Amino acid sequence: MVRNPYFDNAKYLAIVLVAVAHAWEPIMEGSRATRALYMAVYTFHMPAFVIISGYFSRGFTARPEQLRRLVSGVVVPYLVFEVAYTLYRRWADDAPWQAFSLTDPIYLTWFLVALFLWRLSTPLWRALRYPLPVAVLIAALASLTPGIGQDLDLQRVLQFLPFFVLGLSLREEHFRMVRRRAVRVLAVPVLVGAAALAYAVAPSLRMGWFYRSTSAQELDAAWWAGPVATVVLGACALVLTAAFLALVPARRTWFTVLGAGSICGYLLHGFAAKAVPYWGLDATYGVLLTPWGRVGLTVVAAVGVTLLCTPPVRRALRWVVEPPLEWAFRRPDARCPADAAAPVTVPAQAAVSRR
């Protein structure tokens, strides 16, 4: 399957934004500018990932080969890194009480649970006449429903669902539209304006709205604020995602090859990001809380996640993120028409921020 350099570029740039935002998280208090940038990035970086994931899930029909790929590329990495991050927190954060749980995703592993559930539901969304309005309604209802609980991080799964469904509805020409010259020209002032707006509201707006992991009531807001936030933040996310995608180069660049390894960068960078709060590095090294310290940490995060996306790291982690599981599944039976007729090509795995 020929890879499209545009999407590899988008995935790499998006994972850099994820890593940088995670690096800002423990050091942004006391810096209105850092908090504003964090808020602006959080508005669209995960929606962009989810939209791309939905786009590459359009062909998912639950064929046997696709289910095997779903297990090897999503379920296995989730199980491995759920255990790894639990052990890491027990050790680095001196938190022996941190329980192992298959249903309560820790930190960034929530995205793998969400991707698994979204992709399994793809045939349903493809069958509906008006899938996007239905998904928005579900997200709005979730935002005003406290007590969904931590199981499978369903609050976040449901609130991000519209972006996945939107990705399922997109075609290649839609991405060509956002790369038109007029859109690219507008993208820069849109992103700058978003940063300025974030700076204006940074002191008063709670970040919980952007994480989409809690209901309105749990954020001490009126119940109706949940659906309103779903629509308003969703619209902002779409505008900023379009601006981001407009600026992504369509040609092959030096970082195009890194897009294929963005899943490695996503899963591994969290260990470095969590080292700062777990080990109290921000308190020990006060320089991290200075402007130059924040800039330095930003550069380190961007360079670090870039290295984690390189082909050698991808090859080293293949046993986790792309394990060969032929031994675990029955071979397609020639006597079974469903298996015999199933094509062997599958859509490319779209790689994927706060717990």
UniProtKB/TrEMBL annotation:
Where is the chain membrane-spanning?
A: 39-58, 70-88, 100-118, 130-148, 154-170, 182-202, 222-247, 254-272, 292-310
The family database entries (InterPro entries) matched by this protein are listed as:
Acyl_transf_3_dom, Nod_factor_acetyltransferase
The yes or no answer to whether the keyword Methyltransferase is present is no
Q: Write one Gene Ontology MF term.
A: acyltransferase activity
Please indicate which superkingdom the organism of origin belongs to. Answer: Bacteria
* Keywords from the UniProt entry: Acyltransferase, Membrane, Transferase, Transmembrane, Transmembrane helix
Keyword DNA-binding assigned to the entry: answer is: no
Residue intervals of the Acyltransferase domain: 4-309
Pfam families linked: Acyl_transf_3
- Which PANTHER family does the record match to this protein? MEMBRANE-BOUND ACYLTRANSFERASE YKRP-RELATED
Protein name per UniProt: Acyltransferase family protein
